[in-house]
Structures are given as C-alpha cells and as structure tokens.
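Figure 3 (text version): structure tokens given as input.
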C-alpha cells in the first residue's frame, strides 16, 4: 500500500514536501525545525534494525571484521583525506566555547540580544564523519602490509553532510553501513561484482521497484565536474535506485564504489607483495531504505505484504 497525499494537502507543495508532511502526520518522523534533521518513531527504528539484520544475513559468510566508528573523525585525518578538495559544501566541523569569563559574558549578551553568538566558539579537533569508511583507512594503514587475502570490514556510523532539503531521503544526519574490501585490484573488483548482484537480490526481496545505474559523487566546482565525468565514464560508481519522492529522479539507497588505489596511496596501505592496495565498498543508506519501504508499503508495518514481513522479521 503506497502512502498517498492527503486530500486536504496544501497545493503548490513538491512531491518531497508532500511525502515529508505525510511522514510527520503519520508519526513516522518528527519535525525538529531544521530540514534534514528529524526524530524517528519506534516503528521507523524497528525497520532500520530489521534491514540491518537482513544485510548481516547476506554478508555473514564473508567473515568481515566489524567496526563501529563514532560520528566524528580527528581533524588532522580529515584534512589529509582530501575531502575538502572535493566536497567542501558537505563538510561539518565541531566547534566549542574555549574562552574565559569575559568571553562568556560577551556570549551571553549576544544571546540575550538575539545576535550571532557562534563567533565565541572555536574549531575543535573533531570533524563530523562524512562517510563511514573515512576513519577506516588510517586505521588499516597502522597495521602494516595486508595479508595475501587482503582484508574485509563491516562498518557502521552516523554521518553528516550539509545539504538541507525538504526531501526526507536527503537527511543531514543519517546512518551508513558499509562493507569495505581492501586488497589487490582483482580482489576488490570481484567483491564489488558480488555485491552488485547480492544487493539487487536482497532489495528485490523487499518488494520495491529498483534499478542499478552508473553514477558519480557530488564533486564541487569546475574541476569537480571533470572528476564526476571521469567517474561515470570509467564505471567507478554504481547506485541502486528506488523511487521514493520521484519516479524521474529515484533515490540512491545502495552504492557500489571502486576507488582504485586512491585510498591505498593516500594512506600508504601496502599489499602483501609490496604493491599499493586498492579499495572498494558497498554502502547502505539505512534511512533511505526505510523510507523506500514506507513509501511503497505504507505507514503501518503490520499491514505490509506478508512476503516482505517474512524477509524483515523471519
């Protein structure tokens, strides 16, 4: 059962706003006053947990090492990652008050006057994690050369990207789960091909329409457009797309990425034979998958198709 727009919904709203308002009205999400930052209902979280278990069932035989990183990364590591070269528009930093009594009085006066008080804060050594895999590469580099079979990791983290939107599928703070393969080019390409098939099978079992298409990351600026074109032309990124708020522009719910030797070179991760490690990952947008399920099966999970319920809650 699809979620339908209310008959009395205000006219002139985009499809994204209509769906978001429906989620608010049905108590699936809760408005925080900031676009892309929402409270989640117990039912929403239950779907997230069920999908998380489904991913684990599909990946458990690979015996990945599981790591849960916090939603912050050390600023020196973030700076070295090169993220600001490609995605400065998405980054978020953590600032805190570090002044004395006089500075505190100034801050309180600015608050009382309704002025901008954030100038009294300074950047800390923490940057909000933009993708679950970013803290992994320097962690792996510390372990020295890879074993001949390479390594496989299962990651989870809350992530932040500054792109406020009325589209509920484009949250500013969201959870990402990733499997990351590190090894030889042959090992990581085989991993991505396996998950391209596995991901489609898994999502098809949830009764949602989907397609896989070549994609690119949102690189910034003129140079970024060249990087995006190269990424698409060489097939380095594919996305599994599900229509959530638009049939014409479906939402990327899973991504399949081959980084070549970018992170291996950046962090000096050697293979067992002394070469530079290649990396690939499959990423799951946990909130996006949940939203796709609510969109196509309705707000009441008890009324979802039995076949879908059996997959999620066996």
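Below: residues designed for each position.
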């Amino acid at each position: 059962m699809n979620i339908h727009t209310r008959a009395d919904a205000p006219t002139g709203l985009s499809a994204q706003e209509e769906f978001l308002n429906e989620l608010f009205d049905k108590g699936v999400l809760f408005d925080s006053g900031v676009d892309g930052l929402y409270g989640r209902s117990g039912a929403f979280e239950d779907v997230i947990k069920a999908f998380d278990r489904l991913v684990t069932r599909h990946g458990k035989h690979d015996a990945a090492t599981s790591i849960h990183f916090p939603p912050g990364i050390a600023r020196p590591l973030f700076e070295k990652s090169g993220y600001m070269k490609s995605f400065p528009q998405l980054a978020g930093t953590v600032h805190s008050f570090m002044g004395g009594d006089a500075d505190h009085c100034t801050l309180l006066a600015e608050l009382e006057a309704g002025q901008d008080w954030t100038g009294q804060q300074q950047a800390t050594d923490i940057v909000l994690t933009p993708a679950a895999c970013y803290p992994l590469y320097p962690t792996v580099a510390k372990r020295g050369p890879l074993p001949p079979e390479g390594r496989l990791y299962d990651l989870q983290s809350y992530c932040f990207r500054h792109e406020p939107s009325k589209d509920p599928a484009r949250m500013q703070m969201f959870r990402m789960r990733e499997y990351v393969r590190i090894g030889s080019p042959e090992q990581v390409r085989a991993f991505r091909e396996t998950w391209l098939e596995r991901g489609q099978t898994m999502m098809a079992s949830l009764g949602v329409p989907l397609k896989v298409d070549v994609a690119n990351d949102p690189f910034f600026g003129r140079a970024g457009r060249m990087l995006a074109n190269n990424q698409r032309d060489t097939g380095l990124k594919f996305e599994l797309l599900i229509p959530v708020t638009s049939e014409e522009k479906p939402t990327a719910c899973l991504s399949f990425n081959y980084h070549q030797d970018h992170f291996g070179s950046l962090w000096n991760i050697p293979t067992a034979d002394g070469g530079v490690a290649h990396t690939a990952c499959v990423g799951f947008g946990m909130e996006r998958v949940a939203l796709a399920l609510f969109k196509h099966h309705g707000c009441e999970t008890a009324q979802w198709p039995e076949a879908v319920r059996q997959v999620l809650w066996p």
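The CA atoms of residues 184 and 280 lie 10 Å apart.
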